[in-house]
Design brief:
It is a single chain. The protein has 256 residues and is of the alpha+beta class. Among the domains are: 118 residues, no CATH class; 59 residues. Helix content is 39%, strand content 22%. The chain is built from six helices and nine strands, in the order E-E-H-E-H-H-E-E-E-E-H-H-H-E-E. The strands form three sheets. A five-stranded antiparallel beta sheet has the order 3-4-5-6-7, covered by helices on one side. It has a two-stranded antiparallel sheet with strand order 1-2. A two-stranded antiparallel sheet has the order 8-9. A hairpin with a 7-residue loop joins strand 6 and strand 7. Helix 1 crosses helix 4, helix 2 runs antiparallel to helix 3 and helix 5 crosses helix 6. The chain is elongated and about 75 Å long. The N terminus and C terminus are likely disordered.
Length: 256
């Protein structure tokens, strides 16, 4: 029997002259507590792209997947994420913020006249622009849209780039990835560009279906396909993978 979620009524108030005045009445249906996949506004294509970009590193590295996901990757095939590029970006960004905060401290809290610290302000301004220029160059020339970078114990490393939506193809509902890997089958690396329409991963109401996206990833990533064959051929790895199927939404492991 289908469970009907309760209807919740609430009213937004605004406070005016010590009085609460009703502003807007809301009526909505409560979602079940286990629902962790929220609908996506599928009008802007960038929202769809961001949803897929966010789920990709979770699937490649974590045994605990959100609700409505398929089975996680076997443990020997999961990647350990590398956060080097993220740490560099955060260092450059926060360093420039600290410089601005230091000047604010000199001017607002210490009340030092500008003529007394204009040399310091000039050096800080130069450092601020240099750091922001380095941050911009890092994002565009080094990261280049990377959404995942990681490695496995068998020596396989992978980088996944999510191509931006610009130019003539800006309005095409297509998800594009560039896969770069090293240490794959035969010890050789490779590069592969793939694309797929967004409509296969979202319902008509905008609900993201992770299992479909995960199945597509398994089919387009050679390092996963080759790893699956190795796991199936190795009795020890196959036994380990069958014991640890993965995690549920609440983080508990399932055992066969």
């Amino acid at each position: 029997m289908k469970q009907i979620q309760p209807i919740i009524y609430t009213t937004l108030h605004v406070r005016h002259h010590e009085q609460d005045i009703p502003l807007l009445a809301l009526r909505y249906r409560a979602l079940p507590p286990s629902s962790r996949i929220l609908p996506t506004n599928h009008s802007p294509l960038t929202d769809l792209k961001t949803t897929l970009d966010d789920h990709l590193p979770i699937y490649l590295s974590s045994p605990n997947l959100p609700t409505a996901s398929g089975p996680p990757l076997p443990k020997p095939l999961r990647f350990t994420p590398s956060y080097t590029t993220t740490y560099v970006r955060l260092f450059l960004g926060y360093s420039s913020v600290l410089i601005a905060a230091y000047l604010f401290y000199l001017d607002y809290y210490l009340k030092i006249p500008f003529r007394l610290h204009k040399v310091t302000a000039a050096w800080c301004g130069l450092g601020y622009f240099l750091l922001n220029g380095a941050l911009t160059a890092w994002i565009w020339l080094v990261e280049k849209g990377v959404v995942f970078e990681g490695s496995r114990k068998d020596g396989v490393s992978v980088k996944v780039y999510s191509l931006g939506m610009a130019g003539k193809r800006k309005w095409e509902p297509v998800y594009r990835l560039v896969l770069v890997w090293e240490g794959g089958k035969g010890g050789k690396g490779g590069r592969k560009e793939v694309e797929v329409g967004f409509e296969g991963f979202f319902e008509g109401n905008g609900m993201f279906v992770p299992a479909r996206f995960e199945e597509w990833l398994r089919g387009v990533m050679p390092v996963i396909q080759d790893g699956m064959k190795q796991v199936a051929a190795d009795p020890a790895q196959a036994a380990t993978s069958s014991v640890e199927v993965g995690g549920t939404a609440n983080g508990t492991k399932r055992r066969n």
